[in-house]
Amino acid sequence: MAHFPVNHPARPVYRVLAGLVGLYILVFGVYGTVATWGKPLFDRGDTYALGLRTNLAFALVSVVFGVVLLIGASRRTNLGHVMNLTAGVVFMVTGLLMMAVLQTSANFLNFSMSTVIVSLLFGLVLLATGLYDRIGPADHAAAEARHRRPTIAGNR
């Protein structure tokens, strides 16, 4: 069974990092929605927002994901831990799937290779923040520390 660190000392840094990713995605989504408003939902045009190609559907999904990530980063519960892990997996899978259909008509989110790279990068960042964002009581953190660094009987 995997052992996630509990009450990691750098947890605030990871929360800020997840919040910055969420903020970028939200700003990208809002800007993309404004730039693609009036065009078809799954348009395959040449519309860019913050350097990434987008369409109205991708922009609207980005607004939702940005808000969700900001909510997760602002909570001091394990909700952010679960949300970051889930969002990291979603970003990684989406990036890989969109890369597979990049030059086909199945590219319904209008991804470009730069969008794929950013999606994979954000997925990795969110997975990393999710791994170190878990909180728990002090006794759970102490038990985790004992599990990771067991004491040797002769060395106390």
Write the layout of secondary structure elements.
Elements (H helix, E strand, L loop, with lengths): L10 H26 L11 E2 L2 E2 L2 H19 L4 H22 L12 H19 L6 H11 L8
Antiparallel strand pairs: 1-2
Report the sheet with the most strands, covering strand number, pairing sense and barrel closure: 2 strands, antiparallel
Structural class: mainly alpha
For the secondary structure, the number of strands is 2
Oligomer: single chain
**Rounded average pLDDT:** 86
Number of helices: 5
Shape: elongated
Question: Percent of residues in helical segments?
Answer: 55-70%
Widest sheet, order of strands? 1-2
Strand content: under 5%
**Radius of gyration, taken over Cα atoms and rounded to an integer in Å:** 19 Å
Distance between the termini: 28 Å
Molecular structure report:
With 156 residues, this protein is mainly alpha-helical. Helices cover 62% and strands 3% of the residues. The chain has helices at 11-36, 56-74, 79-100, 113-131, 138-148, and strands at residues 48-49, 52-53. A two-stranded antiparallel ribbon has the order 1-2. A hairpin with a 2-residue loop joins strand 1 (48-49) and strand 2. Helix 2 packs antiparallel against helix 3 and helix 3 packs antiparallel against helix 4 (113-131). The radius of gyration is 19 Å and the shape is elongated.
